[in-house]
Each structure stands twice: as structure tokens, then as C-alpha cells.
Amino acid sequence: MSEGYMQWLKVRTLMLLGSKRRLEEADKLKEIKLKEEEARELARKEKEKYEAAKREAEYARECAEKEALQRKEAEIKALHDVKEKEKLENALVGPVQSYQEFTWEEIVSATSSFSENLQIGKGAHGTVYRCNLHHTTAAVKVLHSKEGHRTKEFQQEVRITKTVFKIDLKGTLDVLSKIRHPHLLLLLGACSDHGCLVYEYMENGSLEERLLQKYNTAPIPWFERYRIAWEVASTLVFLHNSKPKSIIHRDLKPANILLDHNLVSKIGDVGLSTMLNLDSSICNINTGPVGTLCYIDPEYQRTGLVSPKSDVYAFGMVVLQLLTAKPAIALAHLVETAIQDDQLMKILDPMAGQWPMKETKELALLGLSCLELRRRDRPDLKDEVLPALERLKDAADRSRDSAPKVQLAPPNHFVCPILKDVMHDPCVAADGYTYDRRAIEKWVEENDNSPMTNLALPNKNLIPNYTLLSAIMEWKSQSNQ
Question: What family does the Swiss-Prot or TrEMBL record give for this protein (predicted)?
């Protein structure tokens, strides 16, 4: 063979070997890519399994949290119901404790030396302060005109007590503290030496303030006014039929009717009441007329003789004010004239909503009948007035229940700063602010700073706010009623 052929053969062999290696490398590369694809597919499937497991775990956690929250809400509601039931049982049938005697130092400390910031009312007989005594929110009435550590009101009660009933002031207070009724303001105690009376605190102030919408308070709906009229009448019946002494209020007026957070009414200022023997319907009071002009029984002013019908007269005026939200002076004439002219709807309080004409006219006529000048012409409170009011209240309740519910705006501290909605599970974060648990947990997963202050959070611990949760649950319960 020639040298050229040998050279060609050598090159040919090298080319074949190179081609074979390239094919082998291509096969290896294809095999590697196939294995990579298999690995990616396996990773994708594993990721899907992980995501599915994560979702399942998250769902299980949410179910567990929801179940725990529902159980916690049920426990709180059950505890609240038990406390309310115990409170009602103690008020109606349980043993009644005597009033508590507070020291002057306790009264001064509780009112921050009678700070104007705590003053919630001022009248002819005294000034009322909101305070906290023995971990209980209360209202302290400090009577005016101290004279030898006794006020004129206390001295008057002492004179009445000594001349008519032959018992001292301490005995009178002891009796008053034991009078319990759901719609009678509870006397918690007193500081007798300095003329201070301690009552339970009523969040919504007086009926007078709400009717006149002082401090921009919301108006009272007409059906709630029907109910309040029935509550006041039932309380007067209770006082008039108390044993062993019948009690006459003698100063019933909207300013002495207090309202709690649910607009449930309670009559206050029973300290001026007169106790009568059960076998006597009239008593001669020698201290002069007690009460407020326009609410005082004309026969009481003329003769000085007080009877349960004196309270009936004042109640009639309260009824007309519930309907009109107008001052008491000349109100009876205004309502009587409006009814005669068939113009009653024009003088009713428009802020109360759509008054039902038939029932409202019946209530107005009932109020006017209580305002008859002669006692014998006024209806009997227990046998005539109360049954009529109960029937009207039931009709009002049916109208209220059938009316569309209006969702009240929640208090600001019930709203989560992140969700801008009412919290379901309020928790306190390390920045001191309260958030909904799910919202703040999601926030701290992605952020290390406070959503309120933008400062770094010292830690990511969350503390349940059970007190706020209880308040939110009570608000929701009231909103759904």
C-alpha cells in the first residue's frame, strides 16, 4: 500500500472513533436530561404532596381554632348567663344584705376629691359623681347644704322619720337598701355623717337627658318608650304595695328615671319617699310639698295630703313627655288640644320613629287620665293603668321584632387595626396593641415591625384578650336581639 492510502485510513479510523464517542456522549447527555426531568417531576409531585399536606394541616388548625373559639364563646356566654341568673335570683328571692357604710375618706378618694371630670349630674338636692368603690363602678350623690354634717334633705328625712314613723335615719336607709326591684335604682351604701348616698351606676344617664338628646345621644325609639312607661308603672305598683309599709315616691320625673346600657329604666331618688301604713291610703305630711313643680299632685299642693294617686299624677306627666319629648309645663293642655283637633301626630317626638296612631293615641289618653285634678277621677295604677300598658308594650314588642334589624356601628376598640373589622379572637401583640389573631399572625410571618407604630417588635408572642372578647360577644348578642 502506498503511504497516502495509509494516511487516509488512519484519518478515517480516527473520524469513526470520534463519531462513536460523540454518539456515546449524546446518549449519555440524553440519559442525564431524562434523569433530570424525572427528578424535576418527582420534586414537583413531592411539592404537590407537601402543599396538599400543608393545606390540610392549615384547615385542621383553622377548624381546631374555630372549635376552640366557639367553645370559649360558649363558656363565656354560659358564665355570663349564670352570673345574670344568680344576680336576678339574689335580687328577687335571695337574702338581701343591708347597705354598706362608707367612710368620708373612701368617698373623697373614689371621686378624686370631687373632681369636675367625674361629675355626671347636679340637681336641687345634690351633685352626682361617677366613681369606683371596692372595684365597683358606682354613682355617689353628695347632698347640698351641709349643716353639722347633715344636709337639709337628711334632716328632713330624720324629722319625718321621728315624727311619723319613730325610726332613725340609719333605720330608714336600712329599709331603703333592702327594697329590691328590677326597675328600682339600687342603693349600695351611704356616708351618713357627710350626706352621701351611693347608688349603682347607670350608663345611659337619665330619661330626661335622652329625651332631650343632651350630649348628642341617640333618640329612644317609640317602642322602647312604651316599654319604659310599663317599667315605671310596674315599679310604682311595687312601691305602693310594699310591706309592711307602702312607699310613695313623691318626686317622680324623667330626671329621676335612669337608663342602663340596654335602655332598661330604673327609678331613683326614693330617699324622699313617704312610708304609709298599709291600712291608710292618705297621709298628712307637715314638712311642706316635696317634689317638682308640674309633677306635684294638685290636691297634695292644696291639702298637704299625699297618697299613691300623687305618684299617678306625676306618672301621667312622664307618659306625655315620653310621647312628645317636650317640657312638662302646659304639656297636658297641649296634648289634650291636639287630640281634640285630631293633630296628635304633629306634636309627637319625630325622632322616635313611625308612631302607631291607634296605640299612641290610647297611651296619650291614658296619660291624660292620670293627670285629672281630682284623685278620685284618676285610674287605679294596678288594676287599670298597668294592664293597659302591658297590652301596649306587647304590641310594641311585636312591631319591634318584625322591623328590619339595624346593625349598630361597633365601638372603635372592637375593630382590628389590620382588618378594619370586628375582631373574632382579639390578642395583644408585643407592641401593646390588640389585633385579631389571624390577622396579626399573618402580619408577623411577613414583617418584623409593628403595624401601628412601625417599630421593631421585641417578640412575636400573642396574649389572648379575654376581657375584650367577652365585651365583643355581649355587643354582638345585643345587636342580634
Answer: Belongs to the protein kinase superfamily.
